[in-house]
Amino acid sequence: MSSDQQFAVSIIVSNQSGALTRISSLFSQRNFNIDSFTCGVTNNPEVSRMTITATGDANKKEQLLKQISKLYDVKKVELMTPENTILRELLIAKVNATGESLQTILDAANVFRSKVVDMSPESVCIEMTGESSKLNAFLTYIAPYGILEYCRTGLVAVERGSKCLYVVD
Predict the structure, then answer these.
(1) DSSP 31
(2) Tens of pLDDT, residues 10-31
(3) From CA 109, how far away is CA 128, in angstroms rounded?
(4) Helical H runs in the chain?
(5) Burial of 156 (0-12, 13-18, 19+ CB in 10 A)
(6) Are 22 and 52 in contact (CB under 8 A)?
(7) I want to staple 114 with a disulfide (CB 3.0 to 4.6 A). Which of 84, 128, 140, 162 is the partner?
(8) Phi-psi region of 147 (alpha: psi -120 to 50; beta: other; left: phi over 0)
């Protein structure tokens, strides 16, 4: 029986070339596959925030976190606990929508609290933000109508409450 579990890590790094390469190389060296990865500059242009999700057992995860924190570019690293974290992802899906299926797809978009961002006579593009399970449920629902293509971002994560991962002094 495997004790592997998915986990999310937020990392504050120097906003300099090579930081991403060093962190992704560390995951590879430790035999971790990155499930999702997002990175962007913060309110301080000198640092970026990365959110990485991966799957592994508790021992390997702990070792990985220790190794990440030792990297030169890393300012702070924190395991994001699911019960105390807001996790969101973005999905844009292009769905075959002709004739009678169009209204059903638009109704589904409304129920899932998503937004239509483009329409053509043959298709509709829907933008949705939420937890991964919500996005997966939407994709499952619209699959019979013909998903032409979709793309997803990686997860972004922030802790609930007033605690911040990184505060500029």
Answers:
(1) T
(2) 999 999 988 889 998 888 888 8
(3) 8
(4) 19-29, 58-70, 100-111, 132-142
(5) buried
(6) no
(7) 128
(8) beta
Q: Which amino acid is at 158?
A: V
pLDDT band at 1 (very low <50, low <70, confident <90, very high): very low
pLDDT in tens, 23-68: 988 888 888 889 999 999 998 999 999 999 988 888 888 888 999 9
Tokens of 15: 């906003």
Q: At a CB cut-off of 8 Å and minimum separation 6, what does 34 contact?
A: 24, 27, 52, 53, 54
86 in Cβ contact with 76 (< 8 Å): no
Instruction: Check if the beta carbon of residue 3 is closer than 8 Å to that of residue 38.
Output: no
What domains does the chain contain, in order, with CATH numbers?
Answer: 5-80 (3.30.70.260), 86-156 (3.30.70.1150)
> Percent of the chain beyond pLDDT 70?
97
Sheet holding 74-80, edge to edge: 34-41, 47-56, 5-14, 74-80
Give the separation between CA 56 and CA 32, rounded to whole angstroms: 7
Q: For the chain, how big is the Rg over CA atoms in Å? A: 19
